[in-house]
Amino acid sequence: MEQMLRLKKNIEFKKVYDKGNSMANRQLVLFMMKNGEDFNRVGFSVSKKVGNSVVRNRVKRLMKESFRSVGPAAAKGYDLVFIARVNIKEASYSDVEKAMVHLLRKSKLLK
User: Fold this and answer.
1) Contact 88, 50 (CB under 8 A)
2) What gap in Å lies between CA 12 and CA 65, rounded to an integer?
């Protein structure tokens, strides 16, 4: 299986926040920006407002796994940052995946 290309450095996240477009639903916020490559890079962010470290890590795992199943169908050439909202801590895997699909469709990155 191909490794997911990740945004990890704070400066990479800031660039997407400053220059990218955003959209949101109840559980997630998506920032996206063209990266001029033929692949997507993705980053995940979970604020301390969401919960303690156990909750935040669980949410991050849910987001990563959701993107792993949805991501290959997305249009290529973008830097994507998914930010968890407080409502996500009660969400199941299928809820997170639906929220991610909704945002990718809304941004016209997913058919």
Assistant:
1) yes
2) 22
Q: pTM for this structure?
A: 0.94
The correct CATH number of 10-106 out of 1.10.443.10, 3.30.230.10, 3.60.21.10, 2.30.42.10 is 3.30.230.10
pLDDT tens string for the chain (111 positions)?
356 799 999 999 999 999 999 999 999 999 999 999 999 999 999 999 999 999 999 999 999 999 999 999 999 999 999 999 999 999 999 999 999 999 999 999 987
What residue segments make up the domains of the chain, in order of their start? 10-106
